[in-house]
Amino acid sequence: MTLLWLPIGLAIPTLIGWLVLTLLEGKTPVLLATERWVMGLLLGLTFTMYLTFLAHIASIIALSLAGFFAIQLVALAILGGLYFLREWRDAAYGVSPPVPPAPSPRPRLWIVLILIALLLWTAAKIILPGFILLSTPPYFDDTISNWNMRGNVFFVTKNLELRLPTQRPGDTAPNSLSSYPPTVPMAKAWLADLAGKWDIGLVNSIHLVWLLISLALVWTTIRRTASRTWSVIALWLLASLPLYLMQGTNAYADVFLSAHLLAAAVLLYHAARAETPQQRLAALRLAAFATALLPFTKNEGFLIYLPTILAVTVALLLVSVKRNILTWKHVGVAFAWFVLLILAIGAPWIGFKLAHGMPFGNAKSVSGFTIAWQPNVLVSIAINTFFEGNWLLLFPVFIALLLARSREAFRTPLAVLTFTFLIVYLGQIPLFLFTSLSTEALMQTGYARGLIHLVPIVIIIVTLLARSIVDNEDERYKKQDTRNKE
Questions:
Q1: pTM for this predicted structure
Q2: Percent of the chain with pLDDT over 90
């Protein structure tokens, strides 16, 4: 019965996220209906926790049930009022029709049976470890010492405590683990406040939600351009990756960050595919919102993924001007949205960290690295990427498809996703090769976690490139049949 508090706790944040996305779209919808609700759940919960954090550090509320609930009601009232005002205004001027999914002809019976089997197998792979997650006390270090412990402290003290029980009594400095953004622990504290107790199954259940969101975003992204068959294949591929599934069915935060990076990159991909300036600008506004939330997910969100998304955005804007899709005025407006939202959401958290002397690395400072060649790193990276079971055959297939379909990968809107992956992946390799971060590759910790953040993007690229090969082959056979009949 305690788990019933999960949908109750997610309802208002989801509606808040849906309202923000709808208002940012304006009169030009660019999201599928399902996509808007899925992103509303993901971004709405993080945005709600950010608003709660902001009100708390301003000494307006405590991290209590009343404090969480008050912020959500105020946000809902303001956004709801803006939404109904917009609806009243747009009733006179009209809005663009909603975005339809791609046509999806009914496949043959044997394909339908295979797809049903894949979906059932995927569901079983999530349900079984998910049951263990909800019914077993946590035993992973990061869960116990970071996400759950901090959430429990917030729940008990009703305060954003920076000193944790693991510190010595005389140590007044903030705990290094407090340098992680508080979104995940605050979400757990919110659920515990609703239930009135710290229930392990309830507070860990949110991690399954983030896994399902990643799967749903992969589904909806493929569904915009391809049939349900390809969407099922993509969903099954992501759920079949052992390390991604393991992380998603445990109380870690890497799939949580992965979903946020995926949302930001996918929205940029939608902007690149947009056919009109209005659609492109609307998608860019949504991407700006998703990007601005990255610093409030994990430290990598600020240090690695925020600069990457901004670099890809700048490239997209320049290409849009060169191809006469956007004007320089449009570019200025779009970039202003990114700057304003990043400053509004990211700046308070970064300022809070600086004011309390908290490091920007993962519980340690990123400064003071010594530059020197680190032996055995390349071997470790090769083993992890190609010769272990973490990713199965994903990366050999990915590389082969990039070479075979280089035009689609680098000269179509899909290039947004391709370059997002390549910038992050190739950018972090020198850190492993020349700094003390080599231990993250040698011990197969940080390197593997970095790939967890990126593999949903890789799955989308692989699926769409494979589809282009199949479609070309189908077209070639159709032309051959036509010639034979003639």
A1: 0.94
A2: 69
